[in-house]
Structure formats: structure tokens, C-alpha cells
């Protein structure tokens, strides 16, 4: 089969690799029908995630069809169309028993495209299949479903829930890429009074406004002053960091009000300064997190029932063998206007 292989910082190739095989009774082999690229994959290619070694097949979010299953798999079967979660869960360790699957101690957590070969391939092996794939309802298409593999649960759990968004809150989301826009969509489930989005790209600010943001600001617009003016000089109740660079994290700490919460979602590859000389007196809560995907069944149910709207998050579509072109488009959103890209195998087209 063919797959997208990481060859070291700045290097990738779409090439022939061995087909995956069952290695454990709880494994499933899934034919990839739809797959996407994550901002985390770009961080890996920059060298920000040194635990990813050269030779690894990238990718951790996909939809596909089960083609083989180990003898220990009971919840899904060959022929089932499934969502592959970005998080793999053994289901037995201390963290899994608490629903904190991202911290799995039994061989799971974020392993696809990280510690084992991932989903940007024609086929993928998924360990602990009963707890790591979700059978899809017939009325949820591949393109919709692939967004629930990572960005929707990540934005919801690590941004909105960790941020403790409540009715009437002022929420500021720094970063209007796919995660930021998913945070916008899921924060609205809690009826905040306003959602303000900050991004340097005109196209992404426009996308945020089209998807329900009340205000979209650029970094040259004195964002802290505008947020204070809108909130009676208090600041935001919740500031969600959705980029993963020091400047955006530090901006969030300047935007949040005393007693508020900074919810960091972005993947950071460099140190950020924590200005405790300003924050120590403000009762500010700062949260971090790797998604656990405990919310995936609920989000999938809401999507199937038409209660969760994801308008236009996928802006570019490719065939699976156009992986290199898809990476080029996704990595240059200022030029291409890309938000999320989707790639389809021959049997994944809808």
C-alpha cells in the first residue's frame, strides 16, 4: 500500500510501505475511506514532536471500513464503517477507568501517527479496536464524520469544557484555524453572550464571522484594549489558545479577567513565558490537556440528530494519492484559504 511517511524534520514522502497486519487479538485493520491532516502533523514536520521518529506513517484521524479483525474484537465487525479516534484506549488501566483515555498507560493514548503508524495511508492497524473506533450511523457521511476524529472533541473537551464556558460568558478564541473554529461551534452550545476570535489572517477572520463569531480581530488592533472595552474593563471569562506558539499563549493571559480561565489547546514546540508577576493576584486558572475523546459518542449522537452544525470547515478535497498536494495546501492557509482538508479513497467518495 501507499502511505505518507515522515522522514525527519521538513521531509515527507508518499510511497509504498508494507500492508498492516493483525498483531494482537484486539486489533482491527481498517481501509481508509476518508482522512484529514492535522495541525499537529505540521508540528511534527517542523520537528516540534521529537518522539515521532523518521519512518513513521503520519495521521491520527480517519473514517474507514473494517477489513479484518482480531479474535478479541467484539463490538465491531468486518464490513462496518467506522470513525477512527485520534486516541486509542486500552480500557483497563487506571486512567482509562477514569475516562482519561489520552493518558492511557496500557499501550494507548495518542499513538496513531506518533508511536505507531497512523492513518494517512490506504490501510491502518488500530489497536484496542472495541474502544478506539466508533460505528457510524448511515446518515453521517464520511466528510462530516472525519471531523469527529480529533478537532471536534479536542476543541470541546480541551477548550470549551476545560475553559468552563457558561451561559452569558465572554469567550475569546485566539486562532481561527480548524481547532479554533471547532471551539467556536462547540462553545455556542453553552450560549455565551459573545465570542470574539483573534487571528492574523483576513481569510480566517472572515471564516469565523461567517460561522457565528460576534467579532473577529487582527493582532494589530490592540486586542486587549478592545476586549476590556467590551467587558467593562474586566476581560474575557474564558480565553482559548488554539495556535500553539508563545505569543498567542501570552496574549491569552493578558485577555482573561480575574477569576477567569485560560484553556490551552495548541501544541507548543517552544517555551512560553508565564507572567506570574501579573497573574499571581488574579485567581486565574490555566488548563492544558491532550484530548481524551470521552465526548465522541455524545458529539456523534448530536451530529446524527442534526443538533451540531459544522458549516464549511472542510474547504479543500483531494484523492488519497494527492496527499503531497493536500499538505502543501493545508500548510499555506494565507495563500490557499484552507481550513481543513479531506482526502478520499476510491470507495470513500460520497
TrEMBL record:
Its cofactor is Zn(2+). Its EC number is 1.1.1.-. SUPFAM superfamilies: GroES-like, NAD(P)-binding Rossmann-fold domains. Keywords: Metal-binding, Oxidoreductase, Zinc. GO terms for molecular function: oxidoreductase activity; zinc ion binding. It is an enzyme of class 1 (oxidoreductase). The keyword Oxidoreductase applies. SMART domains: PKS_ER. InterPro entries: ADH-like_C, ADH-like_N, ADH_Zn_CS, ER, GroES-like_sf, NAD(P)-bd_dom_sf. Residues 8-343 form the Enoyl reductase (ER) domain. The keyword Lipid metabolism does not apply. Belongs to the zinc-containing alcohol dehydrogenase family. PANTHER family: NADP-DEPENDENT ISOPROPANOL DEHYDROGENASE (PTHR42813:SF4), ZINC-TYPE ALCOHOL DEHYDROGENASE-LIKE (PTHR42813). This is Alcohol dehydrogenase. It comes from Kribbella solani.
Amino acid at each position: 500500500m501507499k502511505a505518507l511517511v515522515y522522514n525527519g524534520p521538513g521531509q515527507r514522502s508518499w510511497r509504498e510501505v508494507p500492508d498492516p497486519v493483525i498483531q494482537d487479538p484486539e486489533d482491527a485493520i481498517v481501509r481508509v475511506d476518508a482522512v484529514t491532516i492535522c495541525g499537529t502533523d505540521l508540528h511534527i514536520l517542523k520537528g516540534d514532536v521529537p518522539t515521532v521518529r523518521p519512518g513513521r506513517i503520519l495521521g491520527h484521524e480517519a473514517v474507514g471500513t473494517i477489513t479484518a479483525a482480531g479474535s478479541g474484537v467484539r463490538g465491531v465487525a468486518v464490513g462496518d464503517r467506522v470513525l477512527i479516534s485520534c486516541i486509542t484506549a486500552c480500557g483497563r488501566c487506571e486512567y482509562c477507568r477514569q475516562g482519561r483515555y489520552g493518558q492511557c498507560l496500557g499501550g494507548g493514548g495518542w499513538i496513531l501517527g506518533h508511536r505507531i503508524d497512523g492513518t494517512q495511508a490506504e490501510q491502518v492497524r488500530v489497536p484496542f479496536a472495541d474502544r478506539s473506533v466508533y460505528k457510524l450511523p448511515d446518515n453521517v457521511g464520511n466528510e462530516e464524520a472525519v471531523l469527529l476524529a480529533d478537532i471536534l472533541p479536542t476543541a470541546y473537551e480541551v477548550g470549551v469544557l476545560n475553559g468552563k464556558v457558561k451561559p452569558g460568558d465572554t469567550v475569546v478564541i485566539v486562532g481561527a484555524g480548524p481547532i479554533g473554529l471547532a471551539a467556536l461551534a462547540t462553545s455556542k452550545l453553552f450560549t455565551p453572550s459573545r465570542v470574539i476570535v483573534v487571528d492574523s489572517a483576513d481569510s480566517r477572520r472572515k471564516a469565523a464571522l461567517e460561522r457565528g463569531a460576534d467579532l473577529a480581530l487582527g493582532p494589530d488592533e490592540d486586542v486587549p484594549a478592545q476586549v476590556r472595552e467590551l467587558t467593562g474593563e474586566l476581560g474575557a471569562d474564558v480565553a482559548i489558545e488554539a495556535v500553539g506558539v508563545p505569543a498567542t499563549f501570552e496574549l491569552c493571559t493578558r485577555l482573561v479577567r480575574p477569576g477567569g480561565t485560560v484553556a490551552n489547546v495548541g501544541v507548543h514546540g517552544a517555551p512560553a513565558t508565564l507572567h506570574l508577576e501579573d497573574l499571581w493576584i488574579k485567581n486565574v486558572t490555566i488548563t492544558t490537556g491532550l484530548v481524551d475523546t470521552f465526548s465522541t459518542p455524545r458529539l456523534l449522537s448530536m451530529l446524527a440528530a442534526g443538533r451540531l452544525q459544522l458549516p464549511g470547515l472542510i474547504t479543500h478535497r483531494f484523492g488519497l494519492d494527492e496527499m503531497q498536494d493536500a499538505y502543501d495546501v493545508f500548510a499555506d492557509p494565507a495563500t490557499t484559504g484552507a481550513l481543513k482538508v479531506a482526502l478520499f479513497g476510491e470507495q470513500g467518495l460520497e
